[in-house]
Amino acid sequence: MPRPLGELEDAVMTRVWQWNRPVTVREVLEDLQQERSIAYTTVMTVMDNLHQKGWVRREAEGRAYRYTAVSTRAAYSAALMNEAWSTSDNPAAALVAFFGMMSAEQREALRDAVRVVQHDDESAGEAPAEPRSEPRSEPAAEQAAEHPSPPEAQDGSAESAEPPRPPGR
């Protein structure tokens, strides 16, 4: 599981992810300087640290390096969410609380994501999930959250897919 990025690491990685191309320390520096006063050596150190941690790969170009993201922001966010969820002593309650914090637009995005995963499962030849005989109501979801699954169902066994992690983690 990746540790959350620090504030400056996140500012650097945001640019690397947004630009989606190999970048130099100078390019990142010039963009960061639009928001804050920062030294070239500070950005160089942060980018070197991100390389050492496996977040970026680098290739020499003359006397400088060009840095490229190893993973996407989406994969990073998914890994953080998975870690937070998997450390809960009551995963169902954590999900209910998380869903309760979501806006209508975020819940719709979640529904879309579930449809994509279900479609991918069906395309891979996996049998579609058994349909429920009756839809689960809000109170039923809350009840499930209050009464966690038995420990053997919470062990993170084969059915939970690990999101991508940066190398060396």
Structural overview:
With 169 residues, this protein is mainly α. Helices cover 52% and strands 7% of the residues. The chain is built from 7 helices and 2 strands. It has helices at 7-19, 25-32, 40-52, 73-86, 91-101, 104-123, 138-146; strands at residues 56-61, 64-69. β1 and β2 form a beta hairpin. α1 (7-19) packs across α3 (40-52) and α5 packs across α7 (138-146). The radius of gyration is 21 Å and the shape is elongated. The termini are close together. Residues 131-169 have low confidence and may be disordered.
Radius of gyration: 21 Å
Uncertain runs: 131-169
Can you give the helix content as a percent range? Answer: 40-55%
- Summed over residues and divided by their number, the pLDDT gives a mean of 79
Q: Describe the biggest sheet?
A: 2 strands, antiparallel
Give the helix/strand class: mainly alpha
SSE map:
Layout: H1 7-19, H2 25-32, H3 40-52, E1 56-61, E2 64-69, H4 73-86, H5 91-101, H6 104-123, H7 138-146
Antiparallel strand pairs: 1-2
Helix pairs in contact: 1-3, 2-3, 5-7
